[in-house]
Give the backbone structure.
Amino acid sequence: MDSISDLAFFVRLVKHGSLSALAREVGVTPPAISTRLAGLEKRLGVRLLNRTTRRLSVTQEGELYLKNGTRLLAELEELDVMVSSSRKTPKGLLRVNTTFGFGRRHIAPAISAFLQKYPEVEVQLVLTDRAVKLADESFDVGIWFGEVQDSRMVARRIAANRRFLCASPEYLARAGAPTTPHDLQRHQCIVLRESDAAYGTWYLSRGRKQETVKVRGPLSSNDGETALIWALDGYGILMRSEWDVQAHLNSGALKLVLPEWSLPVADVYAVYVERMNLSAKVSAFIEFLTLWFARDPNWRSGAVDGGVVAGM
């Protein structure tokens, strides 16, 4: 049996909870299911299930196989639906939600190009200061940052997006450049209040070492563009996504702070509710955005070199 078939078999077996239950559903004997399971475990070289005549329990290796296997099967199912939808003509109203700054700078131009290719689609772009509940607001697609924890939502990564700490050369010349994460506590930091999460807490990592720093400063805002203006004006250190600051890093208007330390990424995801009934307009839009960001000349992931993010 191939790997995909084995994955599907194992997920169904765990869902049914017993060899006999799965055997009844597929119309075979329990020994046949047992033989299939034994063959799978032999191929992988690990035990996936501890089993008795009455119950099954998943081993640590089985949990890993189950978790990642379920995700892979879902992605394959989504791919099938997208390929099938691609044969249809995208048309009708497409409601899209994303944040103000990212929407203005990157999604609005992408939609202009999208409509040139798919003129039968009507797009309604709604910008908000944070992600909204798509189903409640009747949105087809949301463009969100970071991994989506809601299992009811389908998320596809459309672009990589790192976060940086940065400040103007004038501020660093005046206040000095921090050399450790805890040095940030003696600096003026520009704090964003963009979500319900604890604001002013920055998480940094370097290899296996992790640091959590509570920062503060005289300026804070719920608007990223405002915070960026303050950083450019020399009021302190800002944590911001590369899509927003890379041009300023390239020009030298901003410099990286603690470049050897990493911050949690905020990759860009296209998020939608329905998997099985994915419409042609949604499928086409997500595919278009994926290609758009792969070749976008104004925002590219580059190597950090000498305090500047270099273009590819």
